[in-house]
Amino acid sequence: MHELFLLQKEEYSLCQNLLFNNGTFAEYLRIPAPVVQHNLLPIPNEVPYELASMTEPLACVLHGAARSNVKQGDRVVILGDGAIGLMFVAALASGKGNWVSAHSPSLILIPLLKCFCLEATTNGCRSVENWGRKNI
User: Fold this and answer.
1) Lowest mean pLDDT across 23-32, 56-65, 99-108
2) Residue 41 in contact with residue 55, Cβ under 8 Å?
3) How many Å apart are CA 120 and CA 131, to the nearest integer?
4) Alpha helices in the chain (DSSP H)
5) Distance, CA of 61 to CA of 95 (rounded, Å)
6) Rounded to whole angstroms, how far apart are CA atoms 11 and 18?
7) If you average pLDDT over every residue of the chain, what do you get?
8) Cβ(88)–Cβ(78) under 8 Å?
9) Separation between Cα atoms, residue 14 and residue 11, nearest integer Å
10) How far apart are CA 133 and CA 40, in angstroms?
11) Nearest-5° angle of CA 17, CA 19, CA 22?
12) β-pair partners for 42
């Protein structure tokens, strides 16, 4: 009866028969066996932890890109140049013929964004070339 109550209240993370772990900032976490069996992936020895740590954010980006309903040839604007924003730029611009515009607050990342985008802007300027020394 308690499980049904938790499900009705959409408190899935409190259920005894938890099948998914929605993330945590805890330093240590005891994960229920069903979650481990169905949701955790072993990290191959040749994959560094830093690269493996990007698996979950990349999965979120690919899931979001798939759900975004962006079709071939669409125009897409990405705001922000953090890890998620950069992954969205790469996912939506690669091989789909999309017009992707990325807007970044950082001058440093504009050249990287231009590798994937048809347009990369910062602070309202069209490109780094338009910036004078006084604006840097």
Assistant:
1) 23-32
2) yes
3) 13
4) 2-8, 33-39, 49-52, 55-67, 83-93, 110-116
5) 16
6) 10
7) 75
8) yes
9) 6
10) 49
11) 120
12) none
